[in-house]
């Protein structure tokens, strides 16, 4: 039985009571929008859960089935897709959380996306290029996308936010979702906020026919997951990527036992470098995205206190091991994006000859990749901080 054979059974089981629906007539589209999630890691599975809950509550607005593309692997001999579709739990990447039965795990990326009106990308960013190559020319040309990825694309040509890479490669408009959202907390329905950013495209087909900001709010907002929708796609994307570099440095401070004041200093300078980076290379960004949105300062704080990046940095300091080893020991297959982003940011700033304007990003790179002693971090950031 394929994943799709199961869909009709599932939607029968899930037909919601009429009282569940809070949809107003103006929100009802010509045909319910179909959402697909690409990715099934810690955050991918959590966002699939959030979206699937909303699809159940809004049957006139959204198709009842949410396909979730799963990078297939075997867990004790069983396929992960089969486990998800029968037990409704992602036992590897989001253990202990029951996924709604309308989340259907699909191992074939093209099949998962083929009828989607909205494709939500949620994978570690080192895998994005390969995914887009497989999807190119195969998605509905009228589809829209949202990137939940936190990372950057750096090449010889420059630096792009990932929403722009998705738009360019697939020819579909792409916004972003980013915020102070540690997945295990959101998955347990603990209250949090997030930021969604979306530009209505020039070829917008009209209300009821196309995704707009209100549809996105309905798709992602939950009583425990408060969505604020803005325009600044580049701003929330950069903030989500760059805070991972700062969190690695915050982890070094934790591991060295230097205390809260030192960690706050690193976070302060980190926020300053994040904003400086945005102003220099993405002038369309708004500074207040960094200082006022969940995707800005709040995400920096939560990641530096409870995220995987800070834990990896701390482990490196405590055990004197390379970042990749710490990632393997701590994360059971999950990914620490700060390791890649630190390198990508360093390479981009070096190409542009501006690395000296970013002493925290620079020393974090030197610690992870060049064996620079982390105890000397203050010397590097004190000196650099006075330059601008
Ligand atoms: N976990 C979290 O708390 C949050 C994560 N994010 C961001 O969301 C994005 C996705 O992160 P997570 O879902 O947490 O992923 P994760 O860190 O749990 O990564 C594991 C995922 O990578 C997949 N994978 C492994 N090898 C692969 C391959 N060769 N090709 C394709 N996929 C492969 C695995 O199947 C699994 O789904 C990242 O950019 C992350 O920074 C954003 C907010 C919160
Ligand atoms: O982005 C996140 C929280 O918003 C998750 O951060 P980590 O990847 O460090 O766990």
Automatic annotation (TrEMBL):
GO cellular component: cytosol; nucleus
UniProt name for this protein: Glycerol-3-phosphate dehydrogenase [NAD(+)]
Tagged with keyword Oxidoreductase: yes
Keyword NAD: yes
Enzyme class: oxidoreductase
EC number: 1.1.1.8
UniProt entry keywords in alphabetical sequence: NAD, Oxidoreductase
Residue ranges of every copy of the Glycerol-3-phosphate dehydrogenase NAD-dependent C-terminal domain listed in the record: 232-377
Chain positions recorded as NAD(+) binding sites: 39-44, 71, 127, 183, 308, 337
Matches recorded under Pfam families: NAD_Gly3P_dh_C (PF07479), NAD_Gly3P_dh_N (PF01210)
